[in-house]
Amino acid sequence: VQLQASGGGLVQAGGSLRLSCVASGRISNINAMSWYRQAPGKQRELVARITSGGRTDYGDSMKGRFTISRDNAKDTMYLQMNNLKPEDTAVYYCNLITFSQTYWGPGTLVTVSS
Questions:
Q1: HSE (CB half, 13 Å, CA atoms) of 68?
Q2: What Cα–Cα distance (Å) separates residue 78 from each residue in 9, 10, 97?
Q3: Given phi > 0 = left and psi -120 to 50 = alpha, else beta, which region is 61?
């Protein structure tokens, strides 16, 4: 299984970005797909998660601004990020968990200027 994230870039505070994560390979028994982020000097943190049943969870600072979604037919996960803040600057990673494995993508950089 390979994960490829895209959609990162430079945006001004208050702007929006949409990240995509495409999963390829032999995928079965997906438990959940998630976005994590890691800012310089900080630990990796959960941004949002969507389970196979469609339940979503968000990090506290992302609630109301970010929306996670999935297109199962395309094996693609999205993260719509609105009202971006400078503190959202980080490398964003997509994550896929099956019943037995955890997979990570290489990340995409999001930079929010003030």
A1: 24
A2: 15, 18, 16
A3: alpha
